[in-house]
User: What shape does this take?
Amino acid sequence: MCGIVGFMYKNGASAVPLGTQLSAMAGTLGSRGLDSTGLAMYGKTSKGHLVLRAQLEAASGEEGEGKLSRLRERVGKLVTVKKATWTKHLARLEFTGVEDPGNLDTLRQITDAAESADDIKVFSIGSAMEIIKDTGPAPELDVYEVKSFVGTHGLAHTRLATESIVDTCSSHPFWARPFADIAVVHNGQLTNHNILRKHFERRGYHFLTTNDSEVIAVYIADKLLNGRNLEEALNDSINDLDGTFTYLIATEKSIGFAKDRFATKPLVIAENDSFVALASEEVALAPVITKGTEVWEPTARSVRTWSR
Assistant: This one.
């Protein structure tokens, strides 16, 4: 079943932090899936400054600090790590030294270095984006102080596991590794994801999980790399992805959605001059709907994008 959420402040950040909006909407959709909850949040960008988010499991504080120190050392051989922190089982590294965030070879090297020991799993790299996810309902993310995150747009997901195991790595959102700042959340099932995964692996892409949704993220990112704009890539996906799906995609400056040819997975959109909000159920949008807000449900094969 799953619940998906998207939100964008059209004119930049607002008095209500982005993290607060996304957390509240995800919490409302908790009944659609309590196996895990995750957020992809987009904040202020600074040239040459990136953030890495990764899973770091530790049985004690001492063990965690040791793993964090080694992670910082490995990544620090490639870039300049400005700050490294660890909360519960998620590490966060801020670093500089990447002249071109679009250089996939560089981002692959950073990801490989981070994951080369201590069973570290990288969830995201971005100049604007940070992915935070955990097993359990939305309140499980409060420990990461997500509600105070100030940003412009983002995605959220509440998961009911169907095809893959229940763990943090298999939770949404999924990063389009190794592309910076691209993430997806998805409600549905793809029947051709293994074929697509093998196609991308032959071309040098690597995946963290066997989840079908991770393939969507890489599919869109690859389309963008090869000259398609976001709307064109979403339209392409309706014919190239088999199965039932509604998914949301976010990049550094944009957000969008695509619905399959059957429209079996729900989506409701609320929009006015200040924001656009998307969710699996209207109840998640109710707190932000005011006079002058247009509310509608997209039909089969619908695609739409917004940019700030």
About this structure: The two ends are 30 Å apart (CA to CA). The chain has a mean pLDDT of 94.
